[in-house]
Amino acid sequence: MKCRSGFVTILGRPNVGKSTLLNALVGTKIAIVTDKPQTTRSAIQGVLTLDGEKNPFGVTIPPLPGNEENPEPSPTVAQIVFLDTPGIMEPRSGLDELMIEEIREAMVERDLLLFLVDASQLFGPKDEKALDWAKDAGLPCFLLPNKIDRIAKPALLPLIDEYRKLYEFAEVIPISALTGENLPLLLERILAYLPEGPLYFPPDHITEQPLRFLVGEIIREKIILETRQEIPYASAVVVERFEEKENLTYIAAEIFVERDGQKGILIGAGGQMLKQIGTRARKEIEELLGRKVYLELHVKVRERWREDRRFLSELDWRKMVGG
Length: 323
Ligand SMILES: Nc1nc2c(ncn2[C@@H]2O[C@H](COP(=O)(O)OP(=O)(O)OP(=O)(O)O)[C@@H](O)[C@H]2O)c(=O)[nH]1
Ligand SMILES: [Mg+2]
Known about the structure:
The chain is α/β, with parallel strands linked by helices. It has two domains: 3-192, Rossmann fold, CATH 3.40.50; 211-319, GMP Synthetase, Chain A, domain 3. It contains ten helices and nine strands. The chain has helices at residues 18-26, 94-105, 125-137, 156-164, 183-192, 211-226, 231-234, 260-267, 272-289, 309-314; strands at 3-11, 44-50, 77-84, 112-118, 141-146, 171-172, 236-244, 248-257, 292-301. The strands form two sheets. A six-stranded mixed beta sheet has the order 2-3-1-4-5-6, sandwiched between helices. The relative contact order is 0.15. The model has no long low-confidence stretch (mean pLDDT 95). The structure holds guanosine-5'-triphosphate and magnesium ion. Magnesium ion binds at residues 18-19, 31, 39-40, 84.
């Protein structure tokens, strides 16, 4: 059975919709999404397998190149291993540097890059910097103007002409990761760039990130959504316990902040803020696990954790695999 498969990295400045796109393509929420920049801190893997039974976008897998006497039939199976990356920015902390390293690693041995910009905003210096990364990689690169649900249709063509001047993009495909507009076309074009290859993962595999990590991310998402100013950036979540009980899953997590004042804000008057974060996170974790959850959150101060390499390595999901 012939198969097209390969590795595709999603790049762009913060907040352009990279994680939203990953979730939409894979059909499951595996990456957290917020309206604040620098939400994603590590490379997030998401796998989409298309076969006779599963093809949510109803796309045709393009035939593999054959010779004239022996034309290859269309493969019936395809697998795309996507990597969502942190938004490209100037590093200001040890954590930022680690995020940059994550992006760098996510560019190695890839078949294709998806470079996202926000079509509803002007192409700015931050996009420029992100584009430099895409250029340096020397890989085929699609430009995806995202958030087209926010702009008037007649504005699109002149915009695409402008984007085309920036670089020799293999394709320019305007999309809305939020509404799903043009995603079937995008998928079909991605598949055309993937070589013949094996299934790298079983067909039902969605991500390598362990549940523990996903749970920590959901809690972090609620912190980012509920808090303001520096709190989203000064918070880290470590899931300490994850125990399957008879009727529920017991989860205990620590939220680390850098200063006492931040701890006070996160807990809130009468514990209201932490309670709100906990309730929102618990509801989503219950949906994810499909069972009742008891969620316990504690806030701890750990000064300058963003500069502490040892602590930062504890946040790495690769170290949690099997845990
Ligand atoms: N209107 C609209 N909003 C979108 C679209 N895609 C993403 N968004 C919104 O844009 C914001 C940022 O989305 P994310 O997916 O977190 O962006 P990101 O590029 O992963 O951001 P970082 O992880 O911070 O680099 C969220 O509020 C999304 O709901 C889109 O197609 N249309
Ligand atoms: Mg993201």
